[in-house]
Design goal:
- InterPro entries: ACP-like_sf, DUF6005.
- It comes from Paracoccus nototheniae.
- This is DUF6005 family protein.
- It contains 15 helices and 9 strands.
- The protein is of the alpha+beta class.
- The protein folds into 3 domains: 10-84, Non-ribosomal Peptide Synthetase Peptidyl Carrier Protein, Chain A, CATH 1.10.1200; 104-265, Alpha-Beta Complex (Cathepsin B, Chain A); 284-410.
- The strands form 3 sheets. The chain has a 4-stranded antiparallel beta sheet.
- β1 and β2 form a beta hairpin.
- It is globular, with a radius of gyration of 22 Å.
Length: 413
């Protein structure tokens, strides 16, 4: 259905953005506001603030499309104003819809396979659509928790590809000791080795992080350079690499919000066999499970029945970080079918459903935030109804995936 609301000019959209950020949102960084100011890096808008902005725009009769919301942290004010005005952004050279990044640990492991050439890394994304959903005792959703060890992905990196990953970070040791470990690994680094510490992206002002969150625990790859004061950071999840001051990276590693580090070597890496792919598929695939949707429903219901309604907004703050994992379905389909040949149309149709699932989760998030602020029962009812619809949609995607897997296995893979 076409949105009946009038589309503003880019100039009107920018004026509205200025009024909202300076007025009801009272953004403390308005001194940086201007056409070239980036929403995340310069104006400090994280996913929660962007949701607030989206609601205020809606009140002004201006719709922010779901794909615009997804890209918003990296957009400039001018780019957002143009998007709100319906200007289609130019396609960039690095766009790759088939290789969407959805998990920093998996992306780093896959980078080693891609560096070797000829190794299809996508099997490691199997099941990531149902990746661990963390809900703490205050009914808050999170993509990260201190007790997550990523052991599942490390196990399958070895089972599929022969990658043997060592955990060098010692949780019981002081930060300074772990920094010494990091220094030693970088001092002995050679091509084909991968040093993967956890860092807090919020302390790297040179890097826009997709979700503009603080803190933002994130795994990346580090390498030494000829200059001891500069390290090379490779961030496969955000498709970025470049030199950064070693002092900034040390500070991001030492921040109390992060703790973790792995190392591995790609020398013995090999392609995954069909048998190993099938074993991982069976280990991860549940045709009826919708753990993220179920978790969101539990959070909504808890904040209606027992917890303060106002706490619902921060409880769902990290949903955008987790919702993007649904694009892992695309990786699985690409493994199991001829997506550039006979299966192209069927693949595109299923990709549309995957995008609708991701966009629907964002829409539920918006409804939930609106309910948290106003208490309007209509928003709550719509969010719960949307969750039921999305569960049916996701099970349909899984049914397609199961059909493709059966066909792939029946053909002898």
């Amino acid at each position: 259905m076409t949105d009946p609301r009038p589309i503003p000019t880019p100039e009107a959209a920018m004026a509205c953005l200025r009024a909202i950020l300076a007025g009801p949102m009272a953004n403390p960084r308005m001194a940086a506001f201007g056409p070239a100011a980036r929403l995340g890096h310069d104006l400090g808008l994280d996913s929660t603030a962007l949701m607030t902005l989206m609601l205020h725009l809606d009140e002004q009769g201006i719709a922010m499309a779901e794909d615009t919301f997804d890209r918003a942290p990296g957009l400039t004010v001018q780019q957002l104003a143009e998007a709100l005005a319906g200007v289609t952004p130019a396609k960039t050279d690095d766009e790759d819809p088939i290789d969407i990044k959805v998990h920093c640990v998996v992306s780093c492991l896959c980078q080693a396979l891609k560096d070797r050439g000829g190794i299809d890394h996508r099997p490691l994304y199997l099941g990531l659509w149902d990746g661990q959903v963390i809900i703490d005792d205050r009914m808050r959703l999170s993509y990260h928790a201190p007790d997550i060890d990523h052991g599942f992905y490390l196990h399958w990196a070895e089972q599929l590809f022969g990658l043997q990953v060592t955990r060098w970070y010692d949780d019981a040791a002081p930060k300074a000791v772990n920094l010494d470990h990091l220094h030693a690994l970088l001092a002995g680094w050679r091509p084909g080795q991968y040093v993967m510490p956890m860092i807090d992206m919020a302390l790297l002002p040179q890097r826009d992080n997709k979700f503009a969150q603080d803190p933002f625990p994130h795994y990346a790859l580090l390498e030494p350079t000829a200059d001891p004061d500069t390290w090379l950071m490779r961030d496969p999840d955000f498709r970025w690499e470049g030199p950064l001051p070693a002092s900034d990276l040390r500070a991001a590693f030492l921040r109390p919000t992060v703790a973790g580090g792995f190392a591995f070597d790609s020398a013995l890496a090999h392609p995954a066999t069909p048998d190993a792919i099938a074993r991982m598929y069976h280990a991860t695939f549940d045709p009826q499970a919708t753990p993220l949707i179920d978790g969101i429903r539990r959070i909504l219901q808890a904040h209606v029945a027992d917890l303060p309604r106002a706490d619902l907004e921060p409880a769902l703050r990290e949903l955008p970080v987790i919702a993007i994992r649904k694009y892992a379905y695309e990786h699985a389909l690409a493994i199991l079918g001829d997506i550039e040949g006979a299966d192209h149309d069927a693949f595109e149709e299923c990709c549309d459903r995957i995008a609708a699932l991701h966009g629907g989760l964002n829409a539920v998030h918006l409804r939930a935030v609106a309910f948290a602020r106003t208490g309007d029962g209509c928003d709550l009812m719509q969010a719960l109804q949307d969750l039921d619809r999305l569960a049916t949609l996701e099970r349909g995607i899984k049914a397609t995936l199961a059909q493709w897997f059966d066909r792939w296995q029946g053909a002898g893979a």
